């Protein structure tokens, strides 16, 4: 094979590999966009209807990845608080506070998010356990699982647990519970109980439009590589023909 032809073949192999990689990344970003938009649509539908189900719905295996408006009465167990680390709000670092709630109507205990508290340096906030009986209302949703790197729960001096992801099955024995429901309850922001919070299901992560923007960038890079390969091939072949004359 002539040297010029061999260079063209190698160049196109490299270009096609790069194009395939960029297209794959673009498709992944589109998939994440559709996934997150579906989440937002599902939550919007639930919040529009606000058809409250019993808190026992948190343990329904058929709905463990879904969203349900729920309400019930019970008490917060005498168990450590769970502080979810690396939570930003209004540009400030903080933690989301969770506590074990036992419903009067039965069913496994579940983690209830009481809201967000700021961090002053790395000093953990003081978190009091709400005493007595309480009526809670809010959104049942899958717990935040964090990133790829998951650290073990860290026991704080006051006995509370600092975590980077919320895995009810793993936290249950640390909280003195035989089991915890797989979904958690995020309290209604209008409820007087707890701390600052909202019903945003995509906190500290990219919204769908950001994924679309990244997808467009990856596809644009794939087109740029294709165009560059075509131009360089044309120039090389033209140069080769001119040399042979």
H-E string:
HEEEEEEEHEH
**Total helix count?**
3
Residues in β-strands, percent: 15-25%
Q: Helicity range of the residues?
A: 25-40%
SS-based class:
alpha+beta
Overall mean pLDDT: 89
- Alpha-carbon distance between the two ends: 19 Å
What gyration radius follows from the Cα positions, in whole Å?
A: 26 Å
Judging from the principal axes of the Cα atoms, what is the shape? elongated
Report on the biggest sheet.
Answer: 5 strands, mixed, barrel
Strand order of the largest sheet: 1-3-4-8-5
Describe the structure.
By secondary structure, the protein is an alpha+beta fold. The protein has helices at 3-49, 168-174, 208-244, and strands at 68-76, 82-89, 92-103, 110-118, 133-141, 154-155, 161-163, 184-187. It has a five-stranded mixed beta barrel. The longest helix is centred in the first third of the chain and has 47 residues, at 3-49. The mean pLDDT is 89.
